[in-house]
From TrEMBL:
The keyword Transport does not apply. It comes from Autumnicola musiva. Coiled coil: none annotated. The keyword Signal applies. This is Tetratricopeptide repeat protein. SMART domains: TPR. Residues 1-19 form the signal peptide. Pfam families: TPR_6 (PF13174), TPR_8 (PF13181). InterPro entries: TPR-like_helical_dom_sf, TPR_rpt. Transmembrane segments: none annotated. The lineage of its organism: Bacteria, Pseudomonadati, Bacteroidota, Flavobacteriia, Flavobacteriales. TPR repeats lie at residues 221-254, 289-322. Keywords: Signal, TPR repeat.
Length: 417
């Protein structure tokens, strides 16, 4: 009786193994036909008794499972990509040569999915995919951790963002080096690869072409900026300042870091400190019009209109087409009108008051004449700038220049068509 039971059990195991092999073969055929859902179902059935298969069939099972869950590699959920990665890793551990290529494809799918998520402003999903890719690389592709941190901050997941950023600081991540790109043969679009090995491998498959390398600068400033930004948003100003001081000690002449530090103080409301640092930045980059523009904005906020005007003029001198600087100059000039209007409104009807009124009106017209050249330059370069055209129209109206008023009206009408 015992022999019969053993014979039946062995027969059952043999039948199970045959059925299992059949399902694995059928899954392979389904994958080749692009029927990934069918392959998943077949493999799910086979997985229930996979422990009873020999190593060769177990290796094939995990390889096909990775292929089934990776699918075409497009629009794949992160859950399926993680499942595919786990299956490929098991197949690789068992000696599969194809599994390594599969792992590269999974990581590429994660990166491309993250790019799509970023474009759709799904920053939390992008961060998770990039962090997963970083883990799959054996925590060697730190560039993915850096971009994961950026996306976590964009998603306002500051705790996760800080975790990633602090990890980067702990390992001394700099970020300078080389980025690798190749053109997707199907879409014709250039995509960033995770490493030179990945670029070379994807190019060999024929799925990508035109590989190229690009040198990138240090990302220390960006990392510090993100850390400081998080702490400032949390009103943890002591930690924000400590992060900046640490970075500045390592890179005391780094202009980018100095700007980040200045912006930090600006966000904290310390505009005097902002100005102090920005003036040092300007000393190192005297030909950068944007720096002068930013200093002009801050000086105006601090009420120092004379200094603001000097900064704007310098910005325009360096970049004659800087529209925002010219419009801000116009705003500063017209700001002088407020006092005159208040004084005119307080005058009475006496002969002396009438005389004073006329004198103030002349001063007011001089202000208008001072502002007009900047407005005309803006309008000449950008006739579609309705703000500049409307302001010019109002000034010409006050000056009684009807021809110019009609010209501005015509421009406004053209803009509305």
């Amino acid at each position: 009786m015992k022999t019969n039971i053993l014979t039946l059990a062995l027969s059952f195991l043999a039948m199970t193994a045959i059925a299992q092999k059949s399902e694995i073969r059928d899954a392979e055929d389904a994958i080749e036909d692009g029927n990934y859902g069918e392959a998943k179902t077949l493999l799910s059935t086979a997985e229930q008794v996979i422990s009873e298969a020999n190593d060769r069939w177990t290796e094939r099972f995990y390889l096909y499972k990775g292929q089934a869950y990776l699918g075409s590699g497009e629009n794949v959920s992160i859950e399926d990509l993680k499942t595919a990665a786990d299956a490929y890793q098991k197949a690789k551990d068992m000696g599969s040569d194809e599994a390594e290529e599969g792992l590269v494809a999974v990581r590429n799918g994660l990166v491309q999915g993250a790019i799509a998520d970023q474009n759709a402003q799904k920053f939390s999903d992008a961060a998770e995919k990039l962090y997963t890719s970083y883990q799959l690389s054996g925590q060697t592709d730190t560039i993915h951790l850096y971009y994961a941190a950026n996306n976590a901050v964009q998603a306002e997941d500051y705790e996760k963002g800080l975790e990633y950023l602090n990890t980067l600081n702990e390992i001394g991540y700099d970020g300078s080096g080389t980025e690798y790109y190749a053109v997707n043969s199907e879409t014709g679009e250039e995509e960033m690869m995770g490493s030179k090995e990945q670029m070379d491998l994807m190019t060999k498959t024929g799925q990508y072409s035109d590989p190229r390398e690009q040198k990138v600068p240090s990302k220390r400033g960006d990392i510090t900026s993100l850390i400081a930004r998080i702490y400032v948003s949390q009103e943890k100003y002591d930690k924000a300042e400590a992060a900046m001081e640490s970075a500045m000690q390592e890179n005391p002449n780094d202009i980018e870091l100095m700007q980040v530090q200045a912006n930090m103080y600006y966000n904290m409301g310390d505009k005097e400190k902002y100005n102090e640092i920005m003036e040092k930045v300007v000393e190192q980059a005297p030909d950068n019009p944007s720096l002068y523009y930013n200093l002009g904005v801050n000086s105006a906020d601090l009420g120092n209109t004379e200094k603001a005007m000097q900064y704007y003029q310098k910005a325009v001198e360096l970049d004659p087409e800087m529209t925002d600087a010219k419009l801000n100059m116009v705003a500063l000039i017209l700001g002088k009108e407020r006092e005159i209007i208040d004084e005119m409104n307080n005058l009475g009807m006496s002969k002396e008051d009438t005389k004073k009124y006329d004198e103030l009106q002349k001063e007011r017209n001089q202000i208008y004449e001072e502002a007009i050249p900047y407005l005309e330059e803006v309008i000449q370069n950008k006739p579609s700038n309705s703000e500049a055209v409307r302001t010019a129209k109002n000034i010409y109206t006050q000056l009684g220049n009807e021809d110019k008023v009609a010209e501005m009206d015509a421009m406004l009408q053209n803009q509305q068509q």
